Amino acid sequence: MNNLSLYGWNDTLFQLKQASQYKHLFHGRVAAVNKTNYEVIAQSGRLLCELAGNVLYGKSSFELPCTGDWVIFQTFDDNKGIIVDILPRKHTLYRRKSGTQSDRQAIASHVDKAFIVQSLDANFSVRRTERFMVQAVEENIQPILILNKSDLEFNRHEVEESLKHIGHQMPIFFTSTLSPETILPVQKFIKQGESIVFVGSSGVGKSSLINALCKRTVFSTSEISKSSGKGRHTSTRREMVLMEGSGVLIDTPGVREFGLVSDNSDTLSNIFDVADFAVYCRFENCTHLDEPDCAVLEAIENGVLDTKVYKSYLKLQNEASHFTISEHEKRKKGKKNAKILEEVKKRKSDLQ
Question: What GO biological process terms are annotated to this protein in UniProt (predicted)?
Answer without folding.
Answer: ribosomal small subunit biogenesis
